[in-house]
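pinging the channel bc i need a second pair of eyes. not urgent but kinda urgent?? the chain im working w is below, pasted from the shared doc
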Amino acid sequence: MNPRWVCLDVGETLVDESRVWATWAEVLEVPPLTFAACLGGVIARGEPHLSVFDVLGVDSWRERAAEVNARYGGFVAADLYPDALPALDGLRRAGYRVAVIGNQPASRHAQLEALGVTPDVMAMSAAMGVAKPDPAFFARALALMGDPPPACVAYVGDRADNDVVPARAAGLKAVWLRRGPWGLLQDARRDADLVVASLDELVARIGEVLPAP
């Protein structure tokens, strides 16, 4: 029997990204509430999230990226959602193999490992050379997992546009995690094979769409 894989996104799936957005607000000297409201607005309108800088009238944001990265300093333990590490363990105990593959800088790989995120396979889009929602991202992800049949893989993420819709189009089981701004402002219910509110719920219900081997 083919192994069953659960592939997890990073941002707003394992990691709470509040701190990185707060760092952007700090560097740009924008009140955090204003930044958050504008980000929510562009997400609700279905616009690319980087459009938030257009709304704020900040044309030079790319020039500030290095400063933001330096202040942010990478992932720390407090950035992990409390259910992140227990979910990895719970999925393994249930007989699933686990991957962590998302749209992130290459440096996030080592940062996650240092926090105890040690799945069977881990890769960041910058190192892969392809990012979601490109179908090639999911093809590459499957290759990294040893080319299991797509129907034997569940992809778990918070975004309708980047995670649920393209994963299902690639033949994977699409699991929509409803947390974070995308998870609450978008609607992926019609496209998702499973909708959960936490990774604890994912562990409890993954068998509904992907029976353990």
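so The first strand starts at residue 5 and ends at 8. and The two ends are 7 Å apart (CA to CA). — does that match what u expected or am i reading it wrong
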